[in-house]
Amino acid sequence: MSDLDVIKLETDPVPFGRSFVQSEAFKALFQEGMELVEEAAAYLDGPGREESRYLQRQVTVAYASESMRLTTRLMQIASWLLVQRAVGEGEISPDQAQLEKNRVRLASQASVASIEEYEALPRRLKNLIGLATRLHARIMHLEQLISESETKVAAPMENPVAAQQRLLRQAFTLQE
After folding, report:
1. What is the DSSP letter of 6?
2. Which residues pair with 6 in a beta bridge?
3. CA distances from 106 to 49, 100, 135 (A)
4. Could you tell me which CATH class the domain 12-154 is placed in?
5. Which of 151, 134, 175 is nearest to 32 (CA)?
6. Closest CA relative to residue 21, chosen from 73, 104, 86, 76
7. pLDDT tens-digit series, residues 129-138
8. pLDDT tens string 43-70
9. Is the CB of residue 93 less than 8 Å from the CB of residue 87?
10. Count of other CB atoms within 10 angstroms of residue 139
11. Got the DSSP string for 4-65?
12. d(Cα 66, Cα 72) in Å, to the nearest integer?
């Protein structure tokens, strides 16, 4: 392969993570996550506390455990979003962000409530749990994409026109 067959780039490609955390999509995700944290806190501290007083004893235990899981999940989400925003704004390096990510793990948490107990929970709590679970899954997917893009080593890309020319030369030299 000659130098003409390879596109020479003066810089390395920008990893997905670095470009994503500076995008409008990330800003929207950040806003969505922080609003969900505030919404859940307001619910659990106000109407949720009042609703929990009227639950049956067994359901009260499920309410307490599910609200703790919700709070933990939202704190993991908020931590991840804040670290990513700090990277995007140049406040910390991607390496420093990796150290921070190791402190706060984005772990999945399964519900321990039975189906009957879960169904007896207040509708608003179940709604918040669903929203947080979906947001958590999206963030775990993004984290995987970011981690993969940061670890991949960019190989020189072959010029597509040169590749086609090489294939044509090979095809015609075989027939002669």
Report:
1. B
2. 158
3. 27, 12, 11
4. mainly alpha
5. 134
6. 86
7. 999 999 999 9
8. 999 999 999 999 999 899 999 999 999 9
9. yes
10. 19
11. GGBPPPSSPPPPHHHHHTTSHHHHHHHHHHHHHHHHHHHHHHTHHHHHHTTS-HHHHHHHHH
12. 10
Residue with tokens 């307490």: 64
Q: Hey, what amino acid is at 134? A: R
**Residue 101: Cβ-neighbour burial (10 angstroms; 0-12, 13-18, 19+):** middle
Between CA 21 and CA 160 the distance in angstroms is: 30
For 85, the 3-state DSSP assignment is: helix
Residue 169 banded pLDDT, cuts 50, 70, 90: confident
Residue 97 dihedral angles phi and psi, to the nearest 5°:
-65, -40
Residue with the two structure tokens 């007083």 = 53
Whether the Cβ atoms of residue 78 and residue 34 lie closer than 8 Å to each other: yes
